[in-house]
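Fold this: Oxidoreductase, SDR family
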Amino acid sequence: MSTMAEDTPLAGKVAYVTGAARGQGRSHCIRLARAGADIVAIDACAPVAEHNGYPPALPEDLAETVSLVEGEGRKIRAEEVDVRDLDGQQRVVSDAIEQFGRLDIVVANAGVLNWGRLWEISAQQFQEVVDTNLTGVWNTIKAVVPAMIEAGNGGSIINISSAAGIKAVPGCGHYCASKFGVVALTNSLAVELGEFGIRVNSVHPYGTDTPMGNDASMWQMFADHQNFIHSFSPGALPTDSLAAPDLVSDIVLWLASDASSLVTAAQIPADKGYLKI
């Protein structure tokens, strides 16, 4: 029989999650709340990149995340803030510390993906992806780290990169560049924050069942450039469909908890072995 501590390993802790309105972000919020954490959630809830082939999150999506977290019996503070807005993130973190008194877990999840060959995409398309996926993570780091150090409770920062942050693929080189950059931020920050007992790791999903993962414009890229498909293997394990976001959330929970106390500066694949194929 499991004990209460085993059921709620994050009891008394507070988690900050970006890109929380739907997809992986929502799943991470729910999973961390179920483990006992109160949640601070942000999402732009608006169009963020003109060339995305999937619709943006909406305010009602974030409201649904709030409802689901509250359904787990936890408190949640949710605001419509774009990760590219450093001042906005710093304000949210300051208000969250005032409300909850602490910040223990950070999941830098927000990101965008769109398609095009590198020399054919516009400067705007390149910049929007890098600004959200890489600068947005730096903004999150800059907003949360001072409060975590001051609290003196240690903690765990989990940056959501991608399998494309380890194995670059054709058709989205700007996305790959941003996600490789997340790895560099992760590893450097892990060394810098080690003395404060704050661990920093990155997670690398592949083929996840979210609006981004179901972007049909990817198939047009493969139709136009059929040799690109060889860079996208199904992985080593049987693959009937895109992976459910909650499977990635299980990894996020492990990294957020003391069960991974020896793990920092690590790149954790969530890819069914894709990176080895």
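The chain has eight helices and seven strands. The domain at 7-269 is CATH 3.40.50.720 (Rossmann fold).
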